[in-house]
Specification:
Layout: H1 9-18, E1 22-26, E2 31-35, H2 37-50, E3 60-61, H3 64-72, E4 82-86, E5 104-108, E6 133-136, E7 155-157, E8 178-180
Parallel strand pairs: 3-4, 4-5, 5-6, 6-7, 7-8
Antiparallel strand pairs: 1-2
Length: about 190
C-alpha cells in the first residue's frame, strides 16, 4: 500500500523496525505491522496541528464528528488522502466522491451494524477514482458503483459483504495486487494475467 502511494516502503520500514519504532507479526496469511501508541498519537498530532480548526484541510481524517461534518457540509478538499470512518444511519457518504485525491478509505462497518441503513443507494454512490486501498467489510450493496473506474486500485478488501459481483459488466484492474472477498456473496470472479 505504501509503495502504491509513491513511498520507498521497504527501506523506510526496515529503518523504523531497526529503531524499534514498529514491529511485524506473521499470522500465516501475511504480515501485520504495529507501532507504539505514542508513535501513532504523534503522527495524528502532526496532521491536526497543521490546520487545527479546519479538518477539511487535513490529509487524514479519523475523528468521526469531523468526518461527518466534512461529508455532510460537502467540505471535502484535495488535501484529504485517507479516511477511517464508522457507518452510522446519519452519515452522508456522497461527499466521499468529492475527495478527488483520496487514496485510502477504511469503512468500519461491523457485523452488528450490518442492517443499519446506510444513507446512500447503489445508483448514487461514488468513490473517487484516485482510491488505491478500499476496505469495507459488510459492504451493504450488491456491486460497486459503475462510476468508480478503480484504475488506481491496488487492494480491495470487502469481507462478509453483500457484494455479488464487483461491477455491472467488467473492468480491467491492472494495478490490483490484493483482493479479499471472503464470506461475501460473490459467486465467481474472472482474473486474467496482464
Amino acid at each position: 500500500m505504501l509503495e502504491s502511494c509513491g513511498f520507498q516502503a521497504r527501506i523506510g520500514l526496515r529503518v523504523l523496525e531497526q529503531r524499534s519504532l514498529i514491529t511485524f507479526h506473521d499470522y500465516g496469511f501475511g504480515s501485520c505491522l504495529s507501532m507504539h501508541d505514542h508513535i501513532e498519537e504523534m503522527g495524528k498530532n502532526i496532521v491536526r496541528r497543521l490546520h487545527l480548526d479546519e479538518p477539511y484541510k487535513h490529509s487524514r481524517l479519523w475523528i468521526q464528528e469531523e468526518i461527518e461534518d466534512v461529508l455532510d457540509n460537502d467540505l471535502g478538499s484535495e488535501a484529504t488522502r485517507c479516511i477511517r470512518l464508522k457507518v452510522t444511519p446519519d452519515i452522508v457518504l456522497e461527499g466521499i466522491g468529492n475527495l478527488k485525491k483520496l487514496k485510502c478509505l477504511f469503512v468500519d462497518h461491523r457485523y452488528e451494524d450490518r442492517n443499519v441503513p446506510v444513507n446512500i443507494d447503489e445508483v448514487s454512490q461514488y468513490f473517487p477514482n484516485s482510491l488505491r486501498y478500499l476496505k469495507w467489510n459488510y459492504y451493504p450493496h450488491w456491486c460497486l458503483p459503475k462510476t468508480f473506474q478503480a484504475n488506481n486500485l491496488v487492494e480491495l478488501h470487502m469481507c462478509d459483504s453483500r457484494i455479488k459481483q464487483l461491477w455491472i459488466g467488467g473492468k480491467v484492474l491492472t494495478k490490483l495486487k490484493s483482493i479479499i472477498l471472503s464470506s461475501s456473496k460473490v459467486t465467481w470472479l474472472k482474473m486474467e494475467d496482464h
